[in-house]
Write a structure and sequence with these properties.
about 450 residues, alpha/beta, six-stranded parallel β-sheet, about 15% strand
Length: about 450
């Protein structure tokens, strides 16, 4: 089979590389000549574990290529995937479909023979029908079907998620389109992956509903963490106790500074907007969006409280800036709210992230950028962990104490044990666990 992947962002590049690993001939298209130039030179524009090797192997095998020539990529393709950006629109938060509409029109102008046009981008309900209308208006004689095939990729684990997914959702009931997409995903039948065929609108709503539900779980446990701090309970034991219930499940019940990234903030906002527009508001999701936004801003106050209510003239060491580990993605990362608030409170801030520094420099300023974790710590008054990169889980605590002015830590990801930190002589604060433990055990 031969497919074209329009867009070489996170979704398009990962999906294209993984499809080529299945043996499909994939041409990835992007208007950004600089990005395509880098890909042709073997440079990967995003950080995703294993992606560089996957791309290199399939380019070498002749199954994966990159171009700015959309016509050449689309002509003769069995399926064309639209995987362009759908950023939140300024003002109302709805998904901006400008790039999707443009891609649909350009694909229509050059496709030949029967083609399945697939929306891979996360789009509001009804977008697939709009894409079909654009193609019909552009090319009344076109032989095509439109399908929805939402991605469920976790940044940092995207390749495994594509190769061994929980499910594949395909929004089309047209027999010819189903045949093409069933063949494209045939390798997954070998591992008995459930493949769900639905109406277009159903597929589009599944994607938004899945992300919204996970955002609800994250926000729920974050609020329970706040309650745990007030009543002296341990949020981890609460999470384990409820997560063992098969109806609830243990995943996405880890407390922290709030969710971020390219999906949850954008998708929850877009779903809430669509629901309002259709007269069926999703109040739970609206509340989750509001709570999460406020939570990220409150995390700086947690640091402030730990330091006695003032950061004036103090130095804060910050570890982790990306919204999660194993990515360089800074979109809606909690650090974007936390770090400027620390600066506004009068602190000098020294920061380090294993992969996100260059992206962080685009949205965070007036800080000292450091080369490694320990480089942040000399004469620091408090160490703040915002992102739980593995290399932060085993810090040499004796070395940390030697470097810092005072052995104080605010752990917003709960990667250390409170009693062990107290035993090591740290004034330690975490999220949703009993009290503030210091070296005296109080």
């Amino acid at each position: 089979m031969r497919i074209a992947m329009i867009g070489t962002g996170y979704v398009g590049l990962v999906s294209g590389a993984c499809f080529s690993e299945f043996g499909t001939n994939v041409v990835c298209v992007d208007k950004d000549q600089s990005k395509i130039g880098k890909l042709l030179a073997g440079e990967i524009p995003i950080f995703e574990p294993g992606l560089d090797k996957l791309v290199a192997n399939n380019v070498a095998a002749g199954r994966l290529s990159f171009t700015t020539d959309l016509a050449a990529a689309v002509q003769g393709a069995d399926a064309v995937f639209i995987a362009v950006g759908t950023p939140s629109r300024a003002g109302d938060g709805q998904a901006d479909l400008t790039f999707v509409r443009q891609a649909a029109k350009e694909v229509a102008e050059v496709m030949d023979g029967y083609t399945v046009v697939v929306t891979k981008s996360t789009v509001p309900v009804g977008t697939g029908r709009e894409v079909a209308q654009i193609i019909r208006e552009t090319r009344p004689d076109a032989d095509f079907d439109v399908a929805s095939n939402p991605e469920f990729l976790r940044e940092g684990a995207a390749i495994n998620d594509f190769m061994r997914p929980d499910r594949v959702v395909i929004g089309t009931l047209e027999p010819r389109a189903q045949e093409v997409l069933r063949e494209l995903y045939r390798p997954l039948y070998l591992i008995e992956t459930p493949i769900l065929f639905t109406e277009l609108e159903t597929s589009e709503l599944i994607k938004y509903s899945a992300n919204a539900f996970l955002a609800v779980k994250i926000t729920f446990i974050n609020e329970i963490a706040d309650l745990c701090e007030k009543v002296g309970a341990d949020v981890h034991d609460v999470a384990k106790g409820i997560g063992l219930d098969g109806r609830i499940g243990r995943k996405f019940l880890h407390p922290g500074p709030g969710y971020g990234g390219s999906c949850f903030p954008k998708d929850t906002t877009a779903l809430a907007h669509t629901a309002q527009e259709k007269g069926a508001p999703v109040r739970i999701v609206e509340t989750v969006v509001d709570i999460n936004d406020k939570r990220k801003k409150r995390m700086a106050e947690k640091v402030l409280a730990h330091c006695g209510g003032s950061l004036e003239g103090k130095t804060v060491a910050v570890l982790g800036l990306t919204f999660k580990p194993n990515t360089d993605d800074m979109r809606d990362a909690p650090s974007i709210d936390i770090v400027p608030a620390l600066r506004a409170a009068g602190a000098a801030v020294r920061v380090y992230d294993p992969e996100g520094i260059e992206e962080a420099k685009k949205v965070i300023s007036d800080v000292t950028w450091c080369e490694n974790a320990y480089d942040t710590m000399p004469d620091a008054d408090v160490l703040v962990i915002i992102t739980e990169w593995n290399e932060f889980r085993g810090l040499d605590l004796d070395r940390v104490k030697t470097l810092m002015r005072t052995p104080a830590m605010v752990d917003l990801r709960n990667i250390y044990n409170p009693s062990e930190m107290a035993g090591a002589g740290f004034d330690y604060t975490s999220v949703g666990r009993p009290g503030r433990l210091d070296s005296a055990g109080g």
